[in-house]
Amino acid sequence: MPDDEQVMAQVREGRVEMLAVLFERYHVRLFNFFLRLTADRPLSEDLTQELFLRILKYRHTFRGESKFSTWMYQIARNLHIDQIRSRHPEIPIDDLFEEKPSAQPCPAQNAEARQEADLLAQALERLPLRKREVLLLSRFQNLKYQEVARLLECSVENVKTLVHRSLKELRRHYLDLQGGTQ
Amino acid sequence: MNCQEARGKIPDLLNDGLAAAEASRLREHLLSCPSCREEFQELSETWARLGILPEVQPGPELRRNFYRQLELELRETAAALRPAWRQWFRFLPNLRLSAPVLRLVAPALVVIAVFASGFFLGNGQKDGSGQIQRLSREKDNLQQQFSLALLTQPSASARLQGLSLTSRLQDPDPALLKTLLAMLDEDPSVNVRLSAVDALYLFADREEVRAAITASLARQTSPLVQIALIDLMVALKEKRAAAALKKLVDDGQILPEVRQRAQSGISHIL
Predict the structure, then answer these.
(1) Chain A contact probe: residue of B16, B66, B145 with most A CBs at under 10 A
(2) Phi, psi (5° rounding) for residue B203?
């Protein structure tokens, strides 16, 4: 079974149909990445679709020096940033990433009736984009901190600090949503 | 290891990023320091809890749109490569033929033009249908390439997707048929083997496919696939399958439903 880099090299050399292999390997994971970032299902499907079109469009820029997944998530991030910029052209992008989400889900009044996964998803949505993104990349997309650091253009130490803080904040939101019990 | 150093390394432990010796030093510190231990427990519990978030499946439109776009891209790529002669015309304005040279080559150009016009006029009518046939072949070829790429994937859902794409093929090539037949015999997923039966039904007008499907009946172990193949043999009225069906009827280990279906299959075929 050829690895991602070999398949992508074939796509780059003109065997465009091989992109189907990468689509089948990654589209669900990418859709979930966008879904956790945006909490918007139709938008996440559009972004996933657009991502594969960009891979096709920019296939000649894949040099095989970095892992395919790192290159792909770089495109995914840019796509997400472009989408945010189009909605809030007046706000600097760094501010948008650090900002607390404005639409806070209401605190759970009947927390016991809620599923744990729902609570956790809500807690995740309460994190600023930057923290949510670093957890999604390192926890769900199985990227190493070095790869996340390359994507976020910061040091590995910064990524680790961010993971540490994000987990603490996530826990706090999760416990709040549970109604302060535990 | 002090507390500050230990806390800095906790994320590494979560992401399997610590060498064994380093991980062991950190664990030693955590055993001896209640405050860092509590920090580690909180973080690792939250990290582990994230694992309960379910993977959400996108709608079927996503896959459909992707393959539609890919097919368009392939056609565009093919179209861009095809008219190589157009490249030559780019140079024509730069050609400066001197009068003597023109006088020499003119008669030859006229002869070529007369022959060429006859050739194109004579073939004009054929050209239209030829182009349609060529486009249809191209489309079939693209779909074969998609199907083959998907049929060899480790994910069963991708292989199922590949099987459903084969239903659009007019003229599958031998490599694809060979892959389909191998899937019928060897695929680890029963669902995929069942879908392979359906996919092969469409190509059962080919002698080699009928022979291979008939032979496969004896190799199947899943009752679901056995029943699907028996039904297929009946639909095809494949007399050669009678011996394999008889063998199933006589098999003491076989499920009663399968034996019954095989028995009734024999009476329909013969």
Answers:
(1) B66
(2) -110, 20
* B67 to chain A, closest Cα gap in Å: 8
Task: Give the list of residues 6+ apart from residue A93 with CB closer than 8 angstroms, or none.
Answer: A81, A84, A85
- Residue range B172-197, pLDDT digits in tens: 888 899 999 999 999 988 888 988 99
In chain A the first and final C-alpha atoms are separated, in Å, by 47
Whole-number Å distance between alpha carbons of B19 and B30: 16
Query: Has residue B145 got a pLDDT over 90?
Result: no
Q: Where are the alpha helices (DSSP H) in chain B?
A: 3-14, 20-32, 34-49, 60-81, 85-89, 99-151, 156-166, 174-186, 190-201, 207-216, 223-236, 242-250, 256-269
Please indicate whether, in this complex, the C-beta atoms of B146 and A20 are within 8 angstroms of each other.
yes
Closest CA to A44 of B55, B146, B75, B190: B55
Residue A3 has pLDDT above 60, yes or no: yes
B226 burial class (0-12, 13-18, 19+ CB within 10 angstroms)?
Answer: buried
Closest residue in chain B to residue A17, using alpha carbons only:
B146
From the list B224, B222, B223, B229, the residue with the least C-alpha distance to B244 is B229
Query: What is the torsional sign of CA B17, B19, B23, B25?
Result: negative
Average confidence (pLDDT) over A117-137: 92
Say which DSSP state B119 is in. Answer: H
Structure tokens at B126: 């054929």
Which residues between 51 and 70 in chain A have a beta carbon less than 8 angstroms from any beta carbon of chain B? 52-53, 56
Residue B103: the pLDDT is 54
pLDDT, tens digit, for every residue of B52-111? 888 899 998 999 899 888 888 877 776 665 555 444 444 444 444 455 555 555 556 555
| Amino acid residing at A28 | V
Query: Where does chain A show beta strands of DSSP type E?
Result: none
pTM over 0.80: no
Q: Which of A56, A139, A164 sits opposite B50 (nearest CB)?
A: A139
Output DSSP code: residue A154: S
